[in-house]
Amino acid sequence: MASDDEFILLERTATGETEAFRILFEAHHEAVFRVAFRLTNEREVAEDITQDCFLRLVSNRGRFDPTRGSLRRYLYGMVRNLVLQYWEAHGQDISLGDNCDDDPPATDVLPVDAILTRETVWAVQAALATLPVLQREAIVLFEFEELSLEEVATAVRSDVGTVKSRLHRARKRLRLALSPYWETQTTAGQRSIL
Description:
Elements: H1 3-14, H2 18-40, H3 43-59, H4 71-89, H5 117-129, H6 133-144, H7 149-155, H8 160-177, H9 179-187
Helix pairs in contact: 1-2, 2-3, 2-4, 3-4, 4-7, 6-8, 7-8
């Protein structure tokens, strides 16, 4: 859906047209939830953030500017802000430092058969949860949501070089955290996770 079409639908929600809101919601709610969940690792919190994101979208519809990018990218920026607000409100340490190259905390994840996809997905989600906030959002938006480097940079209000650096650090940490799976899959001759 083109940004201009989304802007028109958003304007139609101002007149109380629920069908316009439904179209926007159905087009974007799964992606918004995915990002919120991957950043928080908590389903209930991600659901609340998704709901709050769409409520704010409708009540602040004048803030979306289709000339600056897609509605999806705008929503990703909203999700990021809501996640940061949630963490601050709940006293979580949200170190925004980019230079965190410390080894990720040791995990009790043992190598398992690569066929156990659910186990692998859990391990990736757990490894994502150990990443510093800025690295996590870069990897989620670039790898999982398939945004371009430029789109990620816009969503997180940074430059492309910084996003590349965050992605590099995140991949390095994930490789280390997921090394038991990496070794199992590459030994079996399959494509690795990262």
